[in-house]
Structure formats: C-alpha cells, structure tokens
Design the sequence.
C-alpha cells in the first residue's frame, strides 16, 4: 500500500511540484512555512484538488482519475470537521455506511473503544474536547481501512498543554497503521516524533528531504535552520576556514569546497569587550532583538555574520542588553558542524 | 445616550408618524374585532371551509416548493452555468411581479388554451384553472422565490469542506447531499418553508385570476375576507384577525433571522 506520486498542482500563480514515495507502514512529514503548498499537496492526494501533471499511485493502482470517494484515502482535517448533526458513533460509522459495509455499528463501536471514547458514543461532537475530537476524526478515517492516511496539521488546533499528550498518542496509532501516512505540519517537533522521513517544502518546491534527524542537524535553508533553532550559513571551505558572504568562521573540518555551516545558539558566547586570549571565531556584533524563551533568552545580533545566541536571563541583566548594545560574539571551532552543500 | 446617537428633532416627527401609520390599522383590527362573537364567526361553515382550503393548499404548495425549490437553489449555488444570472432573475421575478399579472401568465401557460394547458387538457384531460389544484399552482408560483432565496443563502453559508470530508469517507454526491448538506442547511430550509407557507396562505391576486372564486374549491381565506367585507364586515374582521395571528406567529418563529432579536 505504497503511495507513489509526483504531485503537480496549480492554484492561481502558485505551482506545486512534489515527487513523493511513502512505503506501507511509514510516515512522511511535509514541513514548510504557510503558503508553501503543504495543504494543497494533501488535497491533491485526496482528490479534492485537481492534479495538473505528474501521477498518483496508491498500492500500485493509479488513482489520478478517480474521484475522492473512490481513492480509499483517509483524510483528517486540521479542524477535524466532525458532523455536528450526527452522534460521535454515527460520525465514525459514516464511512462504513457510505460504503455499505456490514456490521457498521459493531465496527464503529470497536474503533471508538480503541481510541478510548466508547463512553462518548451518543454524545455530539461539540461536547468533546479538542483531543477527543481529534481521536474521533482519526477513528472516522481509519475505520474505513484507507490505503493512505493523510493528516493535515493534526495538532495545530490543540492548546499547548494537550499537544504533547496527543502527539504521543498519535505516534501509537501511526505505529499500528499498516498503510502509508502523509502528515502536514509546520512544527518540526511533530515531524521528529511522528515521521520516519521528512520533506521540506518552500514555495511549492522541495528544498530538503531526509530523516527528521538528518534535516534537523543539517538544515539546508534558513527556514529549516530557524525552525530547528540553528545558526546556518553557506560558504566555501579552504584550509580550515569557511569564507561566508559576510565574515568567516574557523572550523575543525578538513574538507574543501562549498559547505553549509551550522551551530546552535547555545554555543555562542557574548562579551562586552573583546575577550582575553582571542578565540579564533570572535567578531563584533550589535543586538537587534531580544526574545525570552523557556529558561533562556534568544538574542538576535547583526554583524559579520549575523548570529543568534541563547543566554541566561541573569546574563541579560549583567550585560545590560537592549537593542543597539555593542558586544563581541565568540564560537568555538569544535561546536561548528560543516557539511557539503 | 451620546450626542451622535440622538435623532434630529426634525426627523423624529415623521418617524413617529411612520410607526403610527404601520401600527394603527393593526390596532384598529384588534379594537373592532367582535370578541364576543369570535367563536361563532369562526365556526360558520363558509369560514371553516375557506380556512381548511387555505391550510391544505398552502401546505401542498409549500411541499411542492420544497421539492422543486431546494434542488433549484442547489443548482443556483453550485453550478457556474453561463446564463446563471438570467436564471436567477427569472426565479426572482414572481417576488416583484404584481400577483394579478402572475395569474394572467399562469392562465396563458396552463389555461385551457394555454401553451402547456392545451396539451394537458387534450392528452390527459387535466384542467388546472378554476380548480383547487389551480390554487396550489398559483400559490407555488408566488411563494417559491422565498424558499429558493432562503435555501440558496443557507447553501452559500455552509463550510463546503464538510462535504469534502464526506467524499473522502466514500460518500457519493447523493449521499453527501442527503447526509451532510441537507442537515447542515436544515435551519435555512425550515425558515424558507415557513416564509413560503405564510406567503402561500396570504395569496390573493394570482389565485383569484387563475383559479377564480368558487366556494369550497378555490375560495381561500384572503378571498373570503375580501368578499365578506361587502356582505358581513364582522366576519371579515374576524378572518383578518386570524391571518394577523398567523403572520405574528411566523414572525416570532423567524425572529432570529429577520428582526435580529435574540
């Protein structure tokens, strides 16, 4: 039940081009900023948006020309779209009734039980919490035994407190599911926890693909780097020095040629004056933005190159930081990762 | 109240006059109603007959409007036919057309020598004018736009992604309509049907032109009121009161949609 597709879709001026293969039992996350074409990709697979080129094959069967109802694809919408005029049980039973299955009630009840909501069978969807509604939406899609499961921002509608819990739950469901799963998200954590592989989409084209760990540690675009919280630069490496568009960095790698350079904001040291002993990567910077994170403060600095640093709240006070403050930034060569473009 | 919210004194007088003009006739109706003879008047055979005929024809007309109007509203809201604006105009014409003209038009179409009526008569022996069926036809003609407009509004107001969700679950177009679309637009359909029924109940011009004025078969309530005014003004008052009550009830039922009162 492999999903093999080359999704080419057009919407106004926007053009999506996404080659994609997801094997049975595997989960692929499509990550990207708003307007990157993530949802269009899902809708195209589901048959809700016309394919203007390429192909879609599910379990060896071309489905390009089939309508949404005949594709055997389960789609869980971001806001679930449970039918409010039906009970929770009838929502789950909807797909079975539409396909004239037998033992509809038993099968639907069985699935409600699996997602732990058997007691809610006669309730209305509006009486459920966000997490419960999501489980019902998942059960409604999975009860029809789809060949491909599509999840559109499955955690976006939940509050932060519920998200971690539901994410872990979802991981369990996906592990049991034997078809191919395509997951759209803008949260790299969702991709890390839920997906086996990851495709990063920007402006309708693939800018990076790989396992979530690969993508997170070796980002290839500023968008991905910001998402996973890394400083990322591109430059040419020669004799242990990477010459960037603006400034240079000394690294431990012995490679040569075009490289990407990345290091975490926590590896950056900030000093009011040029530090003693002059570490090799040391350059003057100016504070442009200060934003508190949990436990630390993220400081954005302009200089050659621009850099982000994570420091403690105490250090912010000690350095009396405010936008415009001039500082010196340092990074140890051993903290910098380089990898070929 | 802030200065901006005050109505200029100059406009206050016409505003109150307008209100009085709308309210006074209704008050007059209430004042002149022979309350002691109310039951007796309503029980008169001619009145009961007219009331019964009106209720039945208005209800049948509403059902007919639902059967034809809901699909028509769906067609209007979901297709991009080239002539859709013209179609919409044709559908709305009965709203602004003088009902008498509607009656004349119906005669030309369904009368014995009408465009279609000729064949109905010749092939099936069906005559519509001056029958109870004719009353239903006249009422349907006048009332259908109310239903179509209400249902089309409801159709445009729903989130179509619910229909998409149903389609991905394996539902065909008919199933999607029956199990998702229709339940979602049900409040709009109900409101349209009530409005449609009220309009059918009050129909006068098209009915008297197309169906005539025969007691028991085509003399509906409004026709009875009009006739009674000459022979028995008290009866006319009582019947008018009855129709006023129906109108108020309809308004009360639709207040959320039409008057904006919560």
Sequence:
């Amino acid at each position: 039940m492999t999903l093999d597709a080359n999704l080419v879709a057009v919407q106004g001026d926007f053009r999506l081009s996404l080659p994609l293969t997801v094997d049975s039992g595997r989960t692929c996350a499509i990550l990207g900023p708003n307007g990157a074409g993530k949802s269009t990709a899902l809708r195209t697979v589901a048959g809700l948006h016309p394919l203007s080129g390429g192909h879609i094959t599910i379990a060896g069967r071309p489905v390009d020309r089939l309508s949404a109802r005949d594709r055997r694809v389960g789609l869980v919408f971001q806001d679930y779209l449970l039918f409010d005029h039906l009970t929770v049980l009838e929502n789950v039973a909807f797909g079975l009734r539409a396909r004239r299955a037998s033992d509809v009630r038993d099968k639907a009840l069985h699935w409600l039980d699996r997602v732990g909501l058997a007691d809610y069978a006669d309730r209305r969807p509006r009486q459920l919490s966000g997490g419960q509604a999501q489980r019902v939406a998942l059960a409604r899609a999975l009860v029809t035994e789809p060949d491909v499961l599509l999840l559109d921002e499955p955690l976006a509608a939940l509050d932060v407190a519920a998200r971690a819990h539901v994410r872990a739950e979802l991981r369990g469901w996906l592990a049991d599911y034997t078809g191919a799963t395509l997951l759209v998200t803008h949260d790299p954590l969702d991709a890390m926890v839920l997906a086996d592989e990851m495709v990063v989409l920007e402006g309708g084209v693939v800018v990076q693909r790989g396992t979530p760990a690969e993508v997170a540690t070796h980002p290839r675009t500023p968008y991905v780097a910001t998402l996973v919280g890394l400083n990322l630069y591109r430059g040419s490496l020669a004799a242990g020095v990477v010459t960037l568009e603006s400034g240079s960095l000394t690294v431990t790698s012995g490679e040569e040629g075009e490289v990407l350079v990345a290091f975490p904001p926590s590896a950056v040291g900030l000093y009011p004056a040029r530090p003693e002993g002059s570490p090799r990567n040391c350059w003057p910077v100016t504070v442009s933005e200060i934003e508190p994170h949990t436990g630390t403060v993220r400081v954005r600095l302009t200089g050659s190159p621009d850099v982000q640093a994570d420091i403690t709240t105490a250090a912010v006070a000690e350095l009396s930081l405010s936008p415009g403050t001039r500082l010196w930034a340092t990074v140890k060569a051993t903290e910098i990762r380089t990898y070929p473009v | 109240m802030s200065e901006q919210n005050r109505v200029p004194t100059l406009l206050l007088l016409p505003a109150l006059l307008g209100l009085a003009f709308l309210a006074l006739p209704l008050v007059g109706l209430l004042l002149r109603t022979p309350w002691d003879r109310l039951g007796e008047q309503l029980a008169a055979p001619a009145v009961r007959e007219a009331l019964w005929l009106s209720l039945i024809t208005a209800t049948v007309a509403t059902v007919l409007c639902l059967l034809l109007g809901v699909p028509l509203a769906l067609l209007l809201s979901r297709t991009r036919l080239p002539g859709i604006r013209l179609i919409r105009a044709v559908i709305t014409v009965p709203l602004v057309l003088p009902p008498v003209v509607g009656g004349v038009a119906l005669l030309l179409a369904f009368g014995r020598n009408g465009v279609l009526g000729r064949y109905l008569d010749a092939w099936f022996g069906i005559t519509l004018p001056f029958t109870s069926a004719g009353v239903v036809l006249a009422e349907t003609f006048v009332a259908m736009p109310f239903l179509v407009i209400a249902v089309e509004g409801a159709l445009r107001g729903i989130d179509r992604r619910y229909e998409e969700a149903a389609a991905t679950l394996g539902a065909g177009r008919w199933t999607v309509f029956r199990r998702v679309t229709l339940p979602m637009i049900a409040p709009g359909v109900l409101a349209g049907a009530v409005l449609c029924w009220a309009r059918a109940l009050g129909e006068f011009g098209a009915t008297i032109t197309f169906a005539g004025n025969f007691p028991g078969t085509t003399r509906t309530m409004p026709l009875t009121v009009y006739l009674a005014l000459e022979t028995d003004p008290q009866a006319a008052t009582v019947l008018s009161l009855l129709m006023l009550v129906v109108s108020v009830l309809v308004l009360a039922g639709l207040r959320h949609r039409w008057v904006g009162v919560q």
Remarks:
- Chain A touches chain B through 25 residues (CB under 8 Å).
- The domain at 230-340 of chain A is CATH 2.40.50.100 (OB fold (Dihydrolipoamide Acetyltransferase, E2P)).
- The mean pLDDT of chain A is 91.
- The longest helix of chain A spans residues 160-176.
